[in-house]
Structures are given as C-alpha cells and as structure tokens.
Amino acid sequence: MMQQLAIFMQFMRRDYYVQVQHLSRYIINYAIIQPVVFSLLTGYFQANTYFGSSNITQNTILFSGTIVVTLLVVTFIQALDLLFDFDGERYINYQITILSPIFVLIQRILFASLMAFLMVAPFYPISKLVLREYLDTSNTNWLMVMILLYFGSLCCSAYHIAAACALKNAASTDSLWKRLNAPMIDFGGMWVPWIVMYKFSPILGYLSYINPLIYVSEGLKQAIVGGSQFLSISTCIIMLMVFTVFFTAVGWYFFKKRLDCL
C-alpha cells in the first residue's frame, strides 16, 4: 500500500511538472483577468442596469454565480490532457502497469481539482478589490467560500474526467459544451437563485437538482450573502460530494472500456 501511495504521489508530481510551464498563463487568464472582467461586467455594469447602484445585495447575488463559468472552463482544460492521451501516446497505458487503474483515475481527478481550485480561489478576493463597496461581503463566511470552491472544483473535475473517458475523440468536445455544459451553466444558478426557478416552475426547480452547478452557485451565494432564500451550505457540500462519487463511478466505467487490458 505504501508503494502504491508513493507511486500516486510521483504521478502527482509528474503532472505538476507538466503543468507548471503553463501555470503563469493559467493564473493570468483565469485567476486574474476573468475575475476582473466578470466583476466589472456583471458585478457593476449589468448589476446596476438591473437593480441600480443602491441595491448592493441584489448586485452581489447576480455576480456571485458567474464563477461557475471559470470553474467549468479550467476543469475542462485539465481533462483535455487525458482525452488527448487516449488519442495519442497513451501514457495512461504505462501508468496502469505500475499503479492500480482506479487510483490512476482518482489521481487525475484529484490533480485537476487542485489545479482548478488554485485558479478559482482568488476570484472573490480580487473581485472585492475591484468592486469595493459594490460587492456586499458584510456577512461573508470566507472559510465556507473556500471550502465550497474546492468541493466545486472536485466535482467539476470528476465530471470532466468522466467526460474525457466517455467521449470518442477531441472533436466531440464541441457537442459536450453545446449539449451539456452550456445548459448546465444557464440553469445552474449563474443568473438567478434556485428559488426563482422553482417559483416560475416547480418542475424546473426539481429538475435543477440534478445539475451539480446549482449546488456550487447556491452554496456560494449562501456563504457570501446569507439568508433563507438559498440552499444551505451543508446540503450543497453533501450533494457535491455525492455527484463527485457518481461522476467518478461513471468515469471508471468508461475508463475501463477505453483500455483494452481492463
């Protein structure tokens, strides 16, 4: 077991050395530029158009859910390495000869989640620096914000790794975004809280429960703004863990199908 753990950590280090050459570009694009752009466009200009400059709380609610876009994008980029590997050199074939295949899959998910968390963790602190008093953080629980960001990163990483195992080739990613990711974003609480969707249509509200992004956006809105109109933080964390296990199981199923020796 200790030998397997040592190999697991070696693979984590290997992925780090591969990704570190892109790290500065990722940080600039996703950890700096995106929060600045989203905070100005959604947190200030769009929010003021809808609610006015005096309704800071509603402005904050509108802005808080925009992070799901960054979260999906950065986890998707991490999953592309596995998808390209399936179509190319198949380094994965070597990995499963020295580490249990299920641990190889888990290692990919865990590394992707850590990279994604690194990219999204500065999102709200940087947005606060940009928006200042226009972002209401008077009731914000920053510890819960970070915990939710990690569990959201973990869940989205498991989802995209599962997708990488299921897709036939890299060209299929266009369909993934059009048929799954885009609707998940639109109905994942990015623009409106879950309660608004439920009041418009209870059926739509209940259907949104199968969208993992609803638990990311609702949990973050609860942690940042607070109140009784959002799902509880504990519910959101539990459901993100459930979806992580589910996507890992789905990924394992397709992972075995992609490897002839399993």
Description:
The protein has one domain. α1 packs across α2, α1 runs parallel beside α6 and α3 packs parallel to α7. It starts with a helix and ends with a helix. The longest helix has 50 residues. With 262 residues, it is an all-alpha fold. It has twelve helices and no strands.
Question: Quick summary of this structure?
Answer:
The chain is mainly α and 262 residues long. It has helices at residues 2-51, 56-64, 67-87, 91-98, 101-120, 123-131, 142-166, 173-186, 194-200, 202-207, 212-224, 233-258.
Alpha plus pi helix count: 12
Let me know the largest β-sheet. none
The tally of beta strands, per DSSP, is 0
Helix content: over 70%
Q: How far is it from the N-terminal to the C-terminal residue, by CA?
A: 21 Å
- Give Rg in angstroms: 19 Å
Report the mean per-residue pLDDT as an integer.
92
- SSE run: HHHHHHHHHHHH
Oligomer type: single chain
Could you say which structural class the secondary elements and strand pairing correspond to? mainly alpha
- Kindly estimate the percentage of residues that lie in beta strands according to DSSP: under 5%
Question: What are the low-pLDDT stretches, counting only 5+ consecutive residues below 50?
Answer: none
For the record, the count of structural domains works out to 1
Report the principal-axis shape.
Answer: globular
